[in-house]
Amino acid sequence: MLAEMLTPVDPVRLAIYASPWPTLLIMSSYLVFVFKLGPKLMEGRKPFELRTFIKFYNIGQVLYNATIIYYGAHFLFYLDTYDLKCIKPLPLDHRHKDYERWMTNLYAINKMIDLSETVVFVLRKKYKQISFLHVFHHVIMAGMCYFIITFNGHGGILFPFCLINAVVHGFMYTYYYLSSLNEALQKSIWWKKYITIIQLLQFMIIMVIFLRMMMDPNCSTPPFTNYLVGIIIPSFTILFINFFYKSYILPGKKHAKQPQNTENKN
Questions:
Q1: 179 within domain boundaries
Q2: How many folded domains does the chain comprise?
Q3: 43-80: string of b/e by CB count within 10 Å (b at 16+)?
Q4: Does any domain span residue 61?
Q5: At 5, is the pLDDT very low, low, confident or very high (cuts 50, 70, 90)?
């Protein structure tokens, strides 16, 4: 059972995903730099500004995710690919298999690129932004791409999740770009908190799709995918709910409990 579950599904994979070692090397290097090497190198140094880099990075991410959304929607809804009632990876001899591989790899590589955000935090000495949620989310999304592509196959049930996630990141990086222009514009963006709400909605949507497939006796998913979705999605949901509560609800409660100014001015 275990051997079957861990048997690679698609022999055609990018070199970076041909074995677990490149992913392990990138993930370990990332963690060592973020928590040890980076802060040590920045000790006694002034933080880098990197404002120009950040602006171009955010614009690049908006365009990158827009590309995923466009071609992903074309693949999912226009081409003859998935049965939306039972979304499974295409057969290896399917005429659109290379398209599916390309879209999956396009998304997966971007999760590696996302790791650079934490590197920028370190170089700017924005250590408070390197939260457990931030690091956990980036490591899981980038590190799990190897296991997903290897043991689930390119595409399948996780394809709509990646498409929705690209939509969320499109909104998120648009906010990051606008907020990087000037402080006044950053304070005027009222829809910041709704990005987290959209992130939570995407977890709910993928769980609904997944549970619907699980309940269909004629639709089976790889065992590895079952464990992955059953553990990772609830974990993300709990962490993002906690983030939303601490960032947007708790401050309001604290403000409401503050005593009113009743100073006698007579």
A1: yes
A2: 1
A3: eeeeeeeeeeebeebbeebbebbbebbeebeebbeeee
A4: yes
A5: low
Label residues 2-16 b or e (16+ Cβ within 10 Å = b): eeeeeeebbeebeeb
Q: What distances in angstroms separate CA 107 from CA 74, 121, 141, 211, 258, one per listed residue?
A: 15, 23, 10, 24, 46
* Model confidence pLDDT, tens digit, residues 106-134: 999 999 999 999 999 999 999 999 999 99
State the pTM of this model.
Answer: 0.88
User: For the segment 130-172, what is each residue's pLDDT rounded down to a tens digit?
Assistant: 999 999 999 999 999 999 899 888 998 888 888 989 999 999 9
Residue 27: domain span: 14-246
**93 phi, psi to nearest 5 deg:** -100, 10
Q: Of 96, 137, 154, 169, which one is the catalytic site residue?
A: 137
Catalytic, 137? Answer yes
Six token digits for residue 103: 């879209």
